[in-house]
Design a protein that fits this description.
Order of helices and strands of chain A: EEEEEEEEEEEEHEE
Strand content of chain A: 35-45%
CATH topology of chain A: Jelly Rolls
Largest interface: A-B, 48 and 48 residues
Oligomer: homodimer
Largest sheet of chain A: 6 strands, antiparallel
Helix content of chain A: under 10%
Structural class of chain A: mainly beta
Strand order of the largest sheet of chain A: 2-3-4-12-7-10
Chain lengths: 186, 186
Amino acid sequence: MSNPKPFATRIDLRSGLMSGYERHTLRRLSDMPGYFHASPADEDPLIYEYFERDVPPEDGQIVQNVSILHPGAIDGEYHMTKGHYHANRRCSEVYLCLSGRGVLLMQTRDGETGALELERGISVYVPPGWAHRSVNTGDQPLMLFALYPADSGHDYAAIAEQGFWARVIQGAEGHPLVVPRRDGSG
Amino acid sequence: MSNPKPFATRIDLRSGLMSGYERHTLRRLSDMPGYFHASPADEDPLIYEYFERDVPPEDGQIVQNVSILHPGAIDGEYHMTKGHYHANRRCSEVYLCLSGRGVLLMQTRDGETGALELERGISVYVPPGWAHRSVNTGDQPLMLFALYPADSGHDYAAIAEQGFWARVIQGAEGHPLVVPRRDGSG
């Protein structure tokens, strides 16, 4: 893929919908075996989807991604993305929340942990080396505009095997709780 | 500067104002000698300002920048930024317009030219190798959220010397006109 010409993308800053995307990816519950602490066999909701603009996967190019994390919970655990490290460990990511409410869970391979709240107008900087997962703790879609170096790559395997340092669940009176895991069992 | 911890930034998606910035830079007319086709000696308006979050200037890190290009014109030429190439020629940039109306002028060292309209919700991808200048053609501030690799660097000199391929001026009935220059004289 050669260097593109300048191009424009229309993003609805209220709904998060993006025009002109080259990729649209959907993740249903059945695409995420073992991620949630429970997986009802009788339903397969759409958990999230994302839209991306293609650029060459090269150092210096930047991917634009809009994700829609649909509201809901699986047995009390809020809808979340798979989460990933960047395969290229020097690559960061910026998330700008366009609408909705949520939490961005983060962690390093060295055991550092973090969680930052997401709401309309909050951007979160995910430094190199930090895995990241978004969680929708509200009752509306969580819309995020994400930008990352096009040569970042995605390492989903480490998270699929080890999970994140915390789960985000529905607490009493509807307040979300970030509950650290005590061991590696999830 | 060591790798930062994850951090959040609040950006007003209506006004474009950013919290928690480390750098605030102002550009008055007197900071831009020779950029406009005329420079009234008796006034020195604030043309634009920008706010940035500091990250290490390293490959893989991403700078977040919010710019406010104030409305107005200098002898019929709309307020604009200096414009620059990235010193690191493999580095791109993404501009998301949060409010206002304008034009992003672009060009390469090989003589390719481009211009894309900016309005709320339009993002423009500036590929590696393309110089870029924003122009406010509206009557409100033009607010842009820009993201670029932290090792991009800025080459202002080439534009200061050669200018851009076009000027954007107030046409009849208030419609902006993108007027190509016939020679290198500006």
